[in-house]
Hints:
Largest sheet: 7 strands, mixed
Order of helices and strands: EEEEHEHHEHHHEEEEEHEHHHEE
Mean pLDDT: 95
CATH architecture of the largest domain: 4-Layer Sandwich
Strand order of the largest sheet: 1-2-3-4-5-6-7
Number of helices: 10
Number of strands: 14
CATH topology of the largest domain: Metallo-beta-lactamase, Chain A
Distance between the termini: 52 Å
Structural class: alpha/beta
Number of domains: 2
CATH class of the largest domain: Alpha Beta
Radius of gyration: 20 Å
Amino acid sequence: MTEVFPGIHWIKMPIPMDESSLAHVNIYLIQGESGYLLVDSGWNTSESFDTLQKNLAEIGADIKEISQILVTHVHPDHYGMAGRIKKLSGASITMHDIEKGLIAPRYVTMDELLKQTDRWLVTNGLPHDEMVGMRDATVGLERFIVPAYPDITLHGGETITTGLFNFQVIWTPGHSSGHICLYEQEEKILIAGDHVLPTITPNISLHPQSVENPLGSYINSLNDMKQLDTELILPGHEKPFTRLTPRIDEIIRHHEQRNREILAMVKDEPKTAYDIAMDVTWGVNASWQDLPNFHKRMAIFETLAHLELMVANSQVKKLSQDSVIYYRQT
């Protein structure tokens, strides 16, 4: 644990997925006048729970002193242990209202979402014999989550006060539809979740639970964030950093380059998102065939996010043939 600012502790939590390229997920323990605010929770594993307890003990605190858990988004690495901590501490859980609606279909009653994912993959060109593995790539992850619904739901624009800090809630859709960031204007601190990461670009996907045109929403929220006066950015992965606007510009340039790459692929003939995803430069030292099914699925959904942005910008036309969707440059 590192105290990155007086009263704000950075804890690196383990990730149980062998195929993950991420070393850890960051959570933040923030001192308040009536207990601690915990931003995100990590996966629900014994190792994660032991890590949290050990770090609390280092500052002479106990899990029962956590009074509020704020979830930036309900992906398992940020939300998985929130329910367990709530049961032990009595803390309230806070998240965006959109994220609340994602909990049950993802982690409680998953059959309908699996059916929707099945249809999306086949409609976007995936052969049926490959579809099942990709559809079920995240089945089983629910064992790392203790589902818990929020006591407080947000929409953006609210202020969360600890007595020592006043955090403005900023709705930042893209990586997840109800993703939120926290901005402390006086101290110039941004808790960024997975919205802005220091060296890697967060996955932005179009899938059955995403907002319409998620990449467009993501880029718009990135541009809006340039107006913030920041000196310290606390991300959901990697390390805290300081230069927000240059990093935002790098991320936007990355997506513009990816758009150009995809646009060139559909210049001469219509292609499905699956066809395109197999040829995109993903920055991994492996062939498409060697990628885990989870990464392949993310690649297809991220390709779709780029294609839908270009459809919205009239750069690409969407075509349908035999119940399969194709894309071609206009």
